[in-house]
Amino acid sequence: MTATPIPLPSALAASLRPLQLHDAVAWSAYLNRPGVIEHTSWGDISPAAIAALIGSYAENRDALRWAIVDTSGRLLGTVGLNEIARAHGRAELAYDLDPLHQGRGLATHAALAVMNWAHDALGLQRIQATVLDSNASSIAVLERIGMQREGILRQYRKVRGQARDYWMYAAVRTGQGTAVPRPSPHQST
User: Fold this and answer.
1) pLDDT digits (tens, 9 = 90+) for 62-103
2) 148-159 and 126-132: which strand pairing?
3) Alpha helices in 6-46 (DSSP H)
4) Where are the domains of the chain?
């Protein structure tokens, strides 16, 4: 399974394309900015580790990743699906964004586009996301795209050696439509 281009609203002046090996340096560079991975479970974010991760997406049938790029092809962030389980109709949504490009709706629109694509193109009924309980920005994105908070996963994943709590969010398709964003009570429009 390979990631195919997915359109984003033209007003964003950005698009989703399959992640490529040459994106490793730019991806590693913004992940290494102060505070970017503070509220995530990222481990090794060196260019070599990121290149290996990109290579694994090309070989892995259980994960897909897209680059969020501007009109000149510059990497702004990434979005993808991990743990794709077609037999069970589910996958886990993941994304990150260069902090220089936050606040424009890129993460929200990219996450929504991939979530809807997973429902439509892959026929998955459940798209879920786990988010560190301290990651307010990511929680806001998940709520803006219509995901529902299902509960807390205690000591779910180690973050730099320490077991941490995560919220579980999900969007479940209950019919023949796609998920639509709704305003979050925690976020102004």
Assistant:
1) 999 999 999 999 999 999 999 999 999 999 999 999 999 999
2) unpaired
3) 24-31
4) 10-172
CA distance 98 to 80: 15
| This prediction's pTM | 0.88
What is the rounded distance in angstroms from the CA atom of residue 9 to the CA atom of residue 124? Answer: 23
Annotate 128-185 with DSSP letters as a single string: EEEEETT-HHHHHHHHHTTPEEEEEEEEEEEETTEEEEEEEEEEE--SSS-------T
CA–CA distance, 95 with 90 (Å, rounded to integer): 17
Q: Using DSSP, state whether 13 is helix, strand or coil.
A: coil
**CATH assignment of 10-172?**
3.40.630.30
pLDDT in tens, 4-60: 888 899 999 999 999 999 999 999 999 999 888 777 778 888 999 999 999 998 887
